[in-house]
Amino acid sequence: MQRSLEQRMAIKFCVKLEKSVAETIPMLKKAFGVDCLSDRQIFRWHKAFAEGREDVNNENRAGRPSTSTSDDNVKRVRDLLNTDRRLSVRLISETLDITKTIVHEIVSESLEMRNVCAKFLPKKALTDALKEIPENDYRADFDA
């Protein structure tokens, strides 16, 4: 993303210097090497800047916005997990009619929970509980 933004700025600079597309392409290929934009993209951006475009950023694209991790869905998953922390991602997905990947993202990222012994627990609670175990007891469990 950043690399293509730099190249668009370079194209805009070439247009301001009244360089043709034929002059601009070799300069960009020399400067950016294998990371250079395609000839078609260079033509498109050169034409846009020559016609008066000032903004080097891409325009927002039309499309469906991501609504899957909305506050409403996060609240629904949180409420369901508060009733029973042993629910699986698959069961939550089926109950709330949300895809499994989105449920997993909500549980792990938004709610910051992990699945431990088939129970979802907050990450902080898990690390605090592990810190409270004396080191000798912890080692004894693994040495046996």
Automatic annotation (TrEMBL):
InterPro entries: Transposase-MT_Hybrid (IPR052709). Gene3D superfamilies: 1.10.10.1450. It comes from the Eukaryota. This is Mos1 transposase HTH domain-containing protein. It comes from Aromia moschata. The lineage of its organism: Eukaryota, Metazoa, Ecdysozoa, Arthropoda, Hexapoda.
